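Supplementary Note 2. Why include the ligand at all?

Several targets in our set were suspected to adopt different conformations when bound, so apo predictions alone were not considered sufficient. For every target with a known small-molecule partner we therefore ran a joint prediction. The input for KG4 is given below.
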Amino acid sequence: MPVILAIESSCDETSVAICNNGKITANVIANQTIHQNYGGVIPELASRVHQQNIIPVVHQALGDSGLSKSEVSAVAFTQGPGLLGSLLVGVSFAKSFALALGLPLISVNHMHAHILAHFIEEPRPDFPFLCLTVSGGHTQIVLVKSYFDMQIVGETLDDAAGEAFDKTAKLLNLPYPGGPLIDKYAQQGDGRKYQFGVPQIKDFDYSFSGFKTSILYFIRSKEQEDPDFVAKHLNDICASVQHSIVQILLNKLKLAAKHFGIKEIAIAGGVSANSGLRRELQNVADQLGWNVYIPAFQYCTDNAAMIAIAGHFKYMEGKFTDQRVAPLSRMEF
Ligand code: KG4
Ligand code: ZN
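The joint prediction is reproduced in token form.
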């Protein structure tokens, strides 16, 4: 019954989706290309582009669904975590839209939403499951007991996996965001050609800052022998970097799965679009008898469909927020 209009603006995508009675009927994503010139997202520029995009994207999402504003039951939005200025645009728009139409508001945690993206389409994981959430800002292993009962059991102590991809790409003179490009070049390379240090971190936690430094030193020493080393061996370097990051991610996931005795395993977030991670996860699953859940590409990177489905579940439980709500750059999980 409910029609949820959902807004995502935590980083550099302005996205609006519609969830009509649990089904996604629109998911419009406006990407921002302006950051490519700078090697990373510039927060001030991101919020300005969100301001330009938000109204046309809302109109398009309603149009794609064949619905009018008056048919919307509630407005869901990303409250955090993310870039404060970017969040502010989405949160302010959601509040005014809801106020003008007399609609309830639903705040959504972006990291919960990445996980709940698994409930947009079949097959849906059974509870409890473990979700490796790997994005540009986060790397977490989450024990998911229900739609709203989630517990972080491991996380990165410094850089996120997406950052490891993006920062390495920068060292290789590739534009931002470098993750998809490393993935592309890796397909033509040998992932076992070069070895990099594997971080030794306790329990189910991760660390990627030393990994990035070890790649920096590796490139510097190789360039002393041959200044064109990176250009000549780009495919093998990318494949080796990707292989290492995937191994680091999956080793801890295997430990956690064993510890909790769970074979329902999901991945989520932008890095779950990585072809090496998707392939290797499937291999591990075949060996260990896991049921794995890998989101469709459009639901891996930031999108409002995941905010809409999270909003749908919250609506069904009557979990609303009020007009005093504010964006949070960091948000309790
Ligand atoms: O979830 P997301 O869209 O935004 C955040 O919430 O951070 O994740 C973005 C991250 C970026 O670091 C990007 O480089 C990475 O996901 N990414 C990839 C791939 N596609 C996106 N990393 C590796 N391989 C990919 N195919
Ligand atoms: Zn994200």
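The beta strands are 3-8, 13-20, 23-31, 74-80, 105-109, 129-134, 139-144, 150-155, 264-268, 291-293. The chain has a mean pLDDT of 96. Comparable summaries for the other entries are listed in the accompanying table.
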